[in-house]
What does this fold into?
Amino acid sequence: MRSISTIEVTQLEENHFCDLKRIDIQPAKLTRSISAFSNAEGGELFVGIDEEREKGTRTWRGFGEPEDANGFIQIFEELFPLGGDYSYDFLKSASGQGLVLRIDVKKTRDIKKASNGEVYVRRGAQNLPIDNEEELSRLRCNKGLSSFETETINVDPNFISNSEQIIGFMLEVVPNAEPEPLA
It folds into this structure.
């Protein structure tokens, strides 16, 4: 458990790398933020900070004891079974009530889905759903799971095998070969 100033946490700006949540949030809903951070560049979540948007104020209202956060920790274990893509600790403050759960989510190599089966990505201070194949394909490329060079295109193989570019390549790079028709 790490001691920290209440003001230091409540004054954090929610952005591409930081999100603040109430302890009342359902663990399943929190998985949207975890999915978004791990599918983007990573980030930090702080669970135990109340926000009154109308007044523009935030209040430290953490968990009474670490066991009260077990539902959240169980959901992390489901999303990250090997535990290497996140870490968490509890923050305490002399002037704040309870313990704030701080989760450090790393960018993952694979695509993480939230508990609702949806894929999210963090943009600015929001978690955006990836809801079509084009966006999912772009996310795969961004994560290095695929590349544009390995993407196939729907073209007649004869168009490619006898094209001016292929014949020129064969003459310059492999001068003793003829283009083979693709099967």
